[in-house]
Design a protein that fits this description.
With 416 residues, the protein is mainly alpha-helical. The chain is 71% helix and 0% strand. α8 packs across α16. The model has no long low-confidence stretch (mean pLDDT 88).
């Protein structure tokens, strides 16, 4: 019989090392193939095993998923005379989310196994940090190019930014931030960390900076600021020393390295005074958010639907969470998306409080809270980060583990 923990490690290995092959597949095709492979494994498991889903889960999640499909499809059909192949992912993506969530129920993990899986994910992250340094060794570029969104023959600035095997620096920063929030939970609760843990935290912050992901860096520090204020961290005297040290370090880097290193200058270009003085990436986001506001104002509460072919005349690609929902599915679509995020956040808070006696499980859920806040409050203005190549399975696999913990606790309470 297949060990459940071994199975989950295998799935994470598939996600981590699934090749992007930019000159052959590209991120979009690689993502679709990866989803097909992994969801096919899930369907095979359901066909071979008798799996009983919690009745509440089955009713509310399946109902919500189906209603979203009806809304997305109906709006798209009303706004266009035909649907092209590239529109379908926008209509069915919620079923993909559900597929990754279901892994936790198909192959359930005990608390001790989930803790062991977290240790395994740390090891995968450390490997990816080491792998990121291969960009400095030309002989290893063919290996690096297997996983890079921007290969060695395209845009040197982005090639040298650390991205592990996640394809893109912003995606890698999202995975890094999870463990930064994880360890912040230790700090906020005054849990003594070992030397290895302290070294890991320093390594995480260094890797986050070396990704030079503006969305990742600002989102991580923004969420840390919120978590600092609403947790016991603000009561620790060392907190203010750490904040002052971090602030002085950032000022030093900007003052002395912005002219010497293009990557540092790339970060501060986001603070251009207007759309003409910012770089192309920031300019695109500003245009996208302006377009989102236009659609939201003119077609309340609906919008254009999926309709990629028609929207291509206005914008080449939609990058952000808010831009995506407002441009395609309107204020109502954004309301649905935020309601789901709020529901997940509420479940996380419930589970976190129930597992306070288990530092590893509670810190895992605490880190998930950080990820949700990151997307909704910060990252969502620059990227639909939980929809991207490897961050989608990363986020929804973890949501599945959290949901499994939730139903396990509620079931235990009902039995009392």
């Amino acid at each position: 019989m297949l060990n459940n923990l071994v199975f989950h490690k295998f799935i994470w290995l598939v996600v981590t090392f699934f090749p992007l092959l930019p000159n052959f597949l590209g991120a979009q095709n690689a993502q679709k193939i990866m989803h097909l492979c992994i969801i096919s494994i899930l369907l095979f498991i359901f066909a071979c095993r008798k799996i009983k889903l919690p009745s509440q889960f089955f009713f509310f999640v399946i109902l919500a998923t189906s209603l979203l499909f009806v809304y997305y499809s109906s709006l798209t059909l009303l706004k266009t005379s035909f649907i092209i192949a590239s529109d379908y992912p926008d209509l069915i993506r919620q079923f993909v989310y559900l597929g990754y969530v279901l892994f936790a129920f198909a192959m359930p993990l005990r608390n001790s196994e989930l803790q062991e899986l977290l240790c395994f994910l740390k090891k995968l992250l450390i490997f990816q940090i080491v792998f990121s340094t291969f960009v400095y060794i030309p002989a290893l570029w063919p290996l690096v190019d297997i996983f890079k969104g921007r290969p060695s023959d395209d845009m040197a600035l982005h090639f040298y930014r650390w991205s592990g095997t996640y394809g893109y620096p912003s995606d890698f920063s999202f995975f890094i931030s999870f463990f930064i929030f994880y360890y912040f939970s230790f700090y906020a609760r005054k849990i003594v960390m070992k030397k290895n843990d302290i070294f890991m935290v320093l390594l995480l912050f260094f890797a986050l900076f070396m990704s030079f992901s503006r969305g990742g860096i600002f989102s991580t520090f923004g969420v840390l600021g919120i978590l600092f204020w609403f947790t016991g961290a603000k009561k620790r005297k060392t907190s203010y020393v750490l904040i002052a040290s971090a602030g002085l370090t950032l000022i030093f880097i900007v003052l002395f390295f912005s002219d010497k290193f293009q990557q540092v200058n790339y970060i501060i270009q986001i603070f251009g005074s207007d759309s003409q003085s910012v770089d192309g990436s920031t300019g695109h986001r500003l245009y996208e958010l302006g377009l989102a506001a236009e659609y939201a104002g003119e077609q309340v509460p609906f919008s254009e639907g999926a309709n990629r072919d028609e929207l291509a005349g206005r914008i080449s690609i939609i990058e952000s969470f808010y831009g995506y929902h407002l441009i395609k599915f309107g204020v109502l679509g954004l309301f649905f998306a935020l309601s789901i995020k709020l529901t997940l956040l509420t479940l996380c808070v419930f589970v976190y409080k129930r597992y306070l006696n288990n530092i590893h499980i509670s810190s895992f859920v605490f880190a998930l809270i950080g990820l949700i806040l990151s997307e909704v409050l910060f990252f969502g203005f620059s990227s639909a980060i939980t929809d991207r190549f490897k961050t989608l399975p990363t986020f929804y696999l973890m949501i599945g583990y959290m949901s499994s913990l939730y139903f396990r606790k509620t079931a235990a309470n009902e039995e009392r």
